Amino acid sequence: MEQMELDHPRYYNNRELSWLAFNERVLQESLDKRNPLMERFKFLAIFSSNLDEFFMVRVAGLKDQVKAGFNKPENKAGLTPKEQLSKISEKNHKLVDMQYSTYQHVLLPMLKEHQITFVAMDELSTMQLDAMEQYFDEQVFPVLTPMAVDAYRPFPMLLNKSINIAVVLEDTFDEEEPAEKTAIVQVPAVLDRYIELEVDEEGTRKFMMLEDIISHFIYKMFQGYKVKSVTEFRITRNADMTIHEEGARDLLKEIEKELKKRKWGAAVRLEIKRDAYDPKLLEFLLNVLEIHRKDVYEIDGPLDLTFLFKFYKDMEEYNDSLVYEALIPQPPKDVGSDEDLFELASERDVFLHHPYESFQPVVDFVEDAADDPDVLAIKQTLYRVSGGSPIIEGLKRAAENGKQVTVLVELKARFDEENNVQWAKELEKAGCHVIYGMNYLKTHSKITLVVRRKKHQIERFVHLGTGNYNDQTAKLYTDMGLITSNRKFGIDATNFFNYLSGYTEKPAYHHISMAPFDIRRDLVHHIDEEIEAHQKYGNGRIIAKMNSLTDKVIIKKLYEASNRGVQIDLIVRGICCLRPGIKGISENIRVRSIVGRFLEHSRIYYFHKNGEGNIYLSSADLMTRNMEKRVELMFPIYDAHIESRLHQILDLHLKDNLKARVQDEHGNYHYVKRAPSEEELDSQLELFNRAYMVGEDEE
After folding, report:
1. pTM of the model
2. Where does ATP bind (predicted)?
């Protein structure tokens, strides 16, 4: 097959539209009756949070391209920036309407059945109205700041993602020619987004949105003026950071400077409450914000449903039957409760699977090393960590104990920059040597090296993972880790850190592959070897699990393998630019996405090679940015026991018939069809059940 045939845009999904398809799958979870009620509300919040970031980064980037006059089609699906923005707007309006229809007409009525409800001002009794007025006067009014808009006071620079109320006022001082005036009042983020009324006689819990209370009593802020209209709106701004690394004397200061700008970027979306807005005011906002009509979203309900994250927690405490049954991460199968982690890793490789198995051994790995008098040095990469991170505390304690501690803190981890700047400062104060990575590359790899001297011999222990060193997200994201004392892995880890922190040529590694570029090169080589093995033995098989697939070089190589007869299963949670099932192109490729209780985050790459192939874990998705613009690691699994476990995990994902969707040749996703005789299988729940069974066996 000629190479050019594989370049046709009809063989590829557009990256942005594929992401919207993923967010639609998230939204579908709010309609899934098998999910507990508050979990369905939570999926609405996740959908909103995802969409905010999408606008702040992806839509903002496309708008920048349009402003710069860039009108060339993107290289895969052949859409120009303008065409992409148009299709995004069309799709997103449908999804947002679906989101609020679900909220208003499906979930709120179900919530009412549990004697929990959100009420409007016109539903309050006289006594309740008096209570809300008192709350406004005493708790809200003192915090509010009305901002007049006139010739002397220009339209204020409103904070990104803040909810605001635009008020059109009529001057009552001149009754013959009353003049209209405009003012803006920001809904204070420091106050609770919703307020609970006293429980009524029937025992119903009633809640009110803060902005509804402010809107109702806002006339009190404008004495001598008549309120003509009140319009609630929200702006989303461009929040992508432009870091000028070349010549930046201090990357830490450069990041801090850019963080301040993020709050005030160009507006890219305007959300406005549908039920009561002033059309003239909308036109005014469009002009002053320089926003196109396609970027306006009329919302049938409360703006910004991310408040449901907090509401979820409140209701979880009130009635835990409305949320998922608690699933407690179990002791890892490879680690006994009383076993010394380093002694165990000296004997064999240790595999960890989160959140089914506890993240604690990873914390112990750092904390035990910090306190072990034989440990000489700890080196670690940090991309995202939790607030109050025990990993950070362990590293600080290690430095205070006199060990050589080197930490690469990735300051450019999107939307975690501020946290990471703070962690970098704290680590430096504790005596750690902090480095910030490489120019123009994000260090996304997850690796820790512990160097210990035992009986006058130097030994090295390495932890490699698919996910961040974050003990909190490890309860929500599915990730994997390997702890090994394999000598060559230790040499690779040493060379990796020396390459990042010093001046040396890129090392030749024994086992690991490193991006930029090498991971792609090695994956293409593995696919070529699979094609060759299939020509000889006729049993070619590739299974790959990742978050996203966008890299055209790898997609074309997978198309080539498919055309040579290799059977390929891809488990891609999010973006997938590859289209499966196209005759003559990808008919031997199947793509599925699993969106469930936990966020599928692990990356697994398996090549059969007539039964002699390897299975690899990685920090990298198969995206162009991961292949070219990030420091990533991919590493092989050699232990037969761990290989067997990984095959079982992949097999479960491929058999999932509850939370899995499959992509068709047109790029659309559908729930897996289950045969009547087939048992239901939720792969995530089954993995937890298996972890529990192991825990029971050990007891």
Report:
1. 0.93
2. 50, 477, 573, 601
